[in-house]
Design brief:
This protein is of the alpha+beta class. Helix content is 26%, strand content 30%. The protein starts with a strand and ends in a 10-residue tail after the last strand.
Length: 690
C-alpha cells in the first residue's frame, strides 16, 4: 500500500479568524483549537520534560485539512480528537479562520501562514479534494517526481526555508520520501516586537532553579518595570502575566509561572479547566498593574518527530494504519498517513520574539507582588486575542548558561578525603553541570527511539518489564560502553569529574566501564553487590566509580544505598542471582550482608557519589510513576594489572562474560574483554598495563 506522509512545519504566529457566519462558527472554532492544543500540550510536556516549543495550531490545521479526504472510522476519530463540527460547512469555515491569522500590514508584527501539497506526478488526486483544499485552506498543489528523492527533498526544503524566512531550512531528507506519494506542509511564521522592549543594559546573569527550589544553572535574565496585565489564577495554580506585541492589541505572550511547589506539568494539566477568554476577562476586570519583570532570554529548538505516537495516544489510530485507514475522498489509491512531524524554533530577546514551526471558571485574586521573577520552569503561549486561540506554546526548564559558569576543577577538602577513606564513598553536591546531564539524557531517549544509531554501545532491557510489553524508554534499563560516544563522553571525561578522580586514586586514568542507567516505573531492585566482582584487575585501591544523578533520586524511585565502611573488610563476597531483583544483576549470596545498616543516598541532579570497588551497595525498586536516570563510570589507574580469577569467587562471572562474547562472535578471555572495553583518558600516552 502506498504511504501518504504529512510532514509538518510550523512557524509560530498569532492568528485572526473571520468565519462565514462569525457568530456561529468562531466560538466552535476557538474551542476546538484550544481543547486540542491542551490535549497535545500535556503529552508534549511529558515527552519533552517541560522544555520545548510547538505550534499546536499548525498541527490542528494540517490534521483538519487531512480530514477533508477521510471517511468512516478514520473521519470519526479525527472529528473526535480535533473537536470538529458534525456539519462540513463549519469545518470549511474553521480552516478559513485558521488561515486568516496572517497579517502583514503592521511594521512591528509579521504573521504568515501558508500550506502546500506536493504530489507525486504518478498519483491521481480527486478533483473534489483539490477544490476543497484550495477553497477552504488556500492550499496550492505542486507536482513532483518522488522517485528522484534528492531533487524532491530539495524542492520541499526550499519551500520550507522560504516560508519560515530561513528559520527552518530542512524538514525532510531524501530517505524520508521512500514509498511516499504525497507530502502536506503547513507553515506559520511569527515575528513580533515587544510593545515594551527590555532595555539591553538591564540584562544580567542570574540563577535559575528547578521546581523544588534547587539551583540548576544560570540564565541571561532580562528586566523591565512597566504596566502589564497580571493575575494570580488559582484554578491553574499559576500566576499569569501578559506581554503584548506591537502597537496593536491583537497578539501577546502569556507567561504562566507555577505557584510554589507546583510543577509546570500540573499547570498544563489544569488548563482544561479554563479558557483564554476567561483569563482575558480577569485581566480586563482588574486592569493592568505596575510590575517589575525578570524573564530569561531564551532560544528553544524542538524536533517533534514522534507526533504520530502522541496523536495515536489521543485517539487518531486508523489514519496511521495501512490496513484500516480510509481516505476515499482524497484519491482512488489506498493511502494512509505514515508519519507526522513538526520542527519548531523560538527565540525571545530584549526586542521581541521570532518563532517558526512547520505543522466559566472560578478565579481568586490576591495582591500582586512587586516582582514577577521568572527564575524557575514556566509555560508560555503566543496567542491571538482576536479569536482567542493559542498559536504557539511551549515550556522552558533547561537554562543554557551553566557549564561556562562553572570552574573546571573541584578540590576536595581534607574532611572529604578522610570521609572517603573511612566510609568508602563520598557525595559531592552539584558537581556535574545541567548542560552535560541534559545532553546525555536526550541522547539516551533518542537511542531508545531509534533516532540515533547506538553504534558499539550495548542496550540492556529490564527483564521484569519485557513480559509486560514495555518498549523503548519503558523497557531499556541501561546503555553500556557510553565512553566511546561523542555525547556521553562529555560526562566520562568531564573535567570536574576527572579532577576529583585524580585526587582520590591518582593519574593517569583509564575508563573501564560506563553506563547510563534508567529505572523505569515498576523496575526491580539491584541487590547488594560489590563492583570489584566484575573486574579482573588490581589493586582495588586504584579503582574507583563515579555515579551521577540525572533526575531527582529518592528512596521511592530506587536511590543508591551503601554499607558504610564495608570496603575495609577487604573481602570479595561470592555473588549470584537473587530473588526479587533484576536477573541481569548479581548480588551477594551471604544473607547476613542484606541485614546490615545502609545509608540511603537521596540526590539531586548533578550530585555525584564516588565509591570504592569493595564497598557493598545496591539500589531499591522504582515504585513511582516516573523514571530515574543516572550516569556512572568506573576508572582504574594505568598502573593496575590483570590477575587470574580461576578458582576464585570471580570465576563464574568470568565464564559468563566469555560465553557472552563468544555468542557475539568473539573468542576473548575475561581480561581481553576488559582490555577491549576500556579507554585511556591520559594525556601522557603511557603504555597501559591493563
Amino acid at each position: 500500500m502506498n504511504k501518504l506522509v504529512f510532514l509538518l512545519i510550523c512557524a509560530f504566529t498569532p492568528h485572526a479568524f473571520t468565519q462565514c457566519t462569525v457568530e456561529k462558527a468562531q466560538p466552535f472554532f476557538k474551542r476546538s483549537v484550544y481543547e486540542f492544543s491542551v490535549e497535545l500540550l500535556t503529552r508534549l510536556a511529558q515527552e519533552k520534560e517541560n522544555h520545548f516549543v510547538a505550534s499546536t495550531l499548525s498541527a490542528w490545521s494540517l490534521l483538519s485539512s487531512i480530514s477533508l479526504g477521510a471517511a468512516d472510522i478514520t473521519l470519526a476519530e479525527m472529528r473526535q480528537v480535533l473537536k470538529l463540527h458534525k456539519r462540513k460547512c463549519f469545518n470549511y469555515k474553521y480552516l478559513q479562520l485558521a488561515n486568516s491569522i496572517a497579517v502583514n500590514n503592521e511594521t512591528d508584527v509579521v504573521v504568515e501562514k501558508s500550506s502546500a501539497i506536493y504530489v507525486d506526478d504518478k498519483m491521481p488526486i480527486l478533483e473534489a479534494f483539490r477544490r476543497k483544499m484550495n477553497t477552504a485552506a488556500g492550499t496550492t498543489f505542486k507536482s513532483l517526481a518522488f522517485d528522484n528523492a534528492d531533487a524532491a527533498a530539495q524542492t520541499i526544503n526550499d519551500y520550507v526555508s522560504e516560508a519560515t524566512h530561513e528559520v527552518i531550512d530542512e524538514i525532510v531528507a531524501p530517505a524520508d520520501l521512500q514509498d511516499v506519494l504525497l507530502v502536506m506542509i503547513d507553515a506559520i511564521f511569527f515575528k513580533g516586537a515587544w510593545k515594551f522592549p527590555f532595555p539591553n543594559e538591564n540584562t544580567q546573569v542570574e540563577g535559575f532553579y528547578n521546581e523544588k527550589g534547587t539551583f540548576i544553572g544560570k540564565t541571561n535574565s532580562m528586566y523591565i518595570t512597566k504596566t502589564f496585565n497580571f493575575r494570580d489564577v488559582n484554578i491553574v495554580s499559576a500566576s499569569v502575566i501578559e506581554l503584548p506585541y506591537g502597537s496593536g492589541e491583537r497578539y501577546s505572550m502569556l507567561v504562566f509561572l507555577p505557584h510554589k511547589d507546583v510543577s509546570v506539568f500540573t499547570v498544563i494539566d489544569k488548563l482544561k479547566n479554563i479558557s483564554l477568554k476567561s483569563i482575558q476577562c480577569l485581566f480586563d476586570e482588574f486592569g493592568p498593574l505596575e510590575m517589575a519583570l525578570n524573564l530569561p532570554r531564551f532560544k528553544i529548538t524542538s524536533d517533534l518527530n514522534n507526533l504520530k505516537e502522541l496523536l495515536e495516544d489521543m485517539g487518531l489510530k486508523t489514519m496511521f494504519d495501512s490496513n484500516s485507514a480510509q481516505f476515499p475522498n482524497l484519491s482512488s489509491y489506498p493511502t494512509y498517513v505514515s508519519n507526522l512531524i513538526q520542527k519548531a524554533d523560538i527565540e525571545v530577546t530584549e526586542e521581541g520574539t521570532v518563532a517558526a514551526a512547520v505543522t466559566e471558571a472560578q478565579f481568586s485574586f490576591r495582591s500582586s507582588p512587586t516582582n514577577f521573577n521568572v527564575n524557575k520552569p514556566f509555560l508560555f503561549m503566543i496567542i491571538d486575542k482576536e479569536v482567542d486561540v493559542p498559536i504557539f506554546v511551549g515550556a522552558y526548564s533547561k537554562p543554557r548558561l551553566i557549564a561556562s559558569e562553572m570552574a573546571e576543577t573541584y578540590t576536595i577538602s581534607t574532611e572529604e578525603r578522610q570521609f572517603y577513606e573511612d566510609n568508602g564513598y563520598l557525595v559531592i553536591k552539584g558537581l556535574i553541570d545541567f548542560t552535560c546531564l541534559y545532553g546525555c539524557k536526550q541522547r539516551f531517549i533518542n537511542i531508545c527511539k531509534g533516532v540515533v544509531d547506538r553504534g558499539g554501545m550495548v542496550l540492556v532491557k529490564e527483564p521484569s518489564l519485557a513480559a509486560k510489553g514495555a518498549k523503548g524508554e519503558q523497557l531499556i534499563n541501561k546503555v553500556s560502553e557510553i565512553h566511546f560516544d561523542e555525547v556521553f563522553s562529555s560526562y566520562t571525561e568531564h573535567p570536574r569529574l576527572l579532577h576529583v578522580l585524580r585526587q582520590l586514586v591518582g593519574a593517569p586514568l583509564r575508563v573501564v566501564n560506563s553506563m547510563l542507567i534508567n529505572k523505569p516505573p515498576a523496575s526491580a531492585r539491584h541487590p547488594p553487590h560489590q563492583d570489584l566482582y566484575y573486574f579482573p584487575f588490581r589493586p582495588a585501591e586504584k579503582i574507583i566509580a563515579a555515579w551521577t544523578a540525572i533526575d531527582d533520586v529518592t528512596i521511592d524511585n530506587g536511590c543508591l544505598y551503601v554499607v558504610p565502611g564495608s570496603h575495609k573488610r577487604n573481602i570479595l563476597y561470592e555473588h549470584g542471582n537473587l530473588p526479587d531483583s533484576n536477573k541481569m544483576y548479581h548480588g551477594i549470596l551471604d544473607a547476613a550482608v542484606s541485614q546490615e545498616r545502609r545509608a540511603q543516598l537521596e540526590m539531586n541532579p548533578g550530585d555525584t557519589v564516588f565509591f570504592h570497588p569493595l564497598i557493598v551497595h545496591g539500589s531499591g525498586p522504582n515504585t513511582t510513576t516516573g523514571y530515574r536516570k543516572s550516569l556512572t563510570a568506573h576508572y582504574a589507574h594505568e598502573d593496575c594489572h590483570y590477575i587470574d580469577v580461576s578458582r576464585t569467587v570471580q570465576e563464574p562471572i568470568a565464564r559468563e562474560v566469555e560465553a557472552e562474547a563468544e555468542r557475539r562472535g568473539f573468542r576473548l578471555s575475561f581480561a581481553d574483554v576488559w582490555q577491549y572495553k576500556s579507554k585511556s583518558i591520559a594525556s601522557s600516552g603511557l603504555q597501559s598495563k591493563l
